[in-house]
Amino acid sequence: MIDENAPPIELRSVSKRFGSLVVLDNVSLTMPRGQTTAVIGPSGTGKSVLLKHIVGLLRPDAGEVRVFGVDMATASEKLVYQVRKRLGMLFQDGALFDSLSTGDNIAFPLARHRPDLSAKKRRERVEEVLELVELPNLYDRPTSALSGGQRKRVGLARAIVTEPEVVLFDEPNSGLDPITSDAIDQLIVSMKQRLHITFVVISHDIVGTLNVADRICMLYGGKVVASGTTAEVTHSDNVMVRRFLSRNLVLPEPGDPAMATLPHIG
Ligand SMILES: Nc1ncnc2c1ncn2[C@@H]1O[C@H](COP(=O)(O)OP(=O)(O)OP(=O)(O)O)[C@@H](O)[C@H]1O
Ligand SMILES: [Mg+2]
I need a surface site. Which of 37, 132, 141, 218 has the fewest CB within 10 A? Predict the structure, then answer.
């Protein structure tokens, strides 16, 4: 059963490994309703894997991923579908269907989740979100003819077209010029205010998330090393957070000899 009072997203002691590679190690995390949570961490630390658990594309080896109170790993197919209707997702690589036009890509979730809309209304709605992401008049363009940044924005448009309650963005700003990137940030902030959407924004750039995030969760080596409000995390004296904030560089992998020079995180 969907529990309207449950947090939109909750991870309880989630662990996931691929072969001998432990990617998520006992991760617990609650993402409150109507807030934007940024999940940050260096490349390869499990951010996208975490997101795939939330939408039910991956199952944890241990622990639970609850979305609106529903355990995505054990729920019936029907219930998972009900939950997914409430989620919009931008995959890191855009995951566009190259056999469809730009507009039909964006219309895809509408056709699936809003069969009540006429073709005309659907087209109008798609034109509306194309304007929101500053790609007006691109409805009929083949996606193969889009630039990288345009593909990203089409992915964004597809994630928000149904105005879902929860929107998950995997690296919404990467590969975008600063102006488009700011426009995307503003879109996130205004949608949150106007529609009270719960956003999850994944980024390897902590500074880049400060414009949008209410909360930050930092993953490192498969564990949550810092979690709290943006102010709490940015003021924390956690050494990983400090390094990430001050240099905004990709950190060494665990086991990297450079790690030996870092103080132990307690
Ligand atoms: N299906 C899979 N099978 C095996 N290994 C996987 C699979 N998916 C992810 N991994 C591995 O899990 C680790 C975490 O991957 P993930 O994509 O979550 O990283 P990330 O934090 O999103 O990195 P980036 O910032 O580069 O996107 C990586 O080492 C990756 O190779
Ligand atoms: Mg990723």
Answer: 141
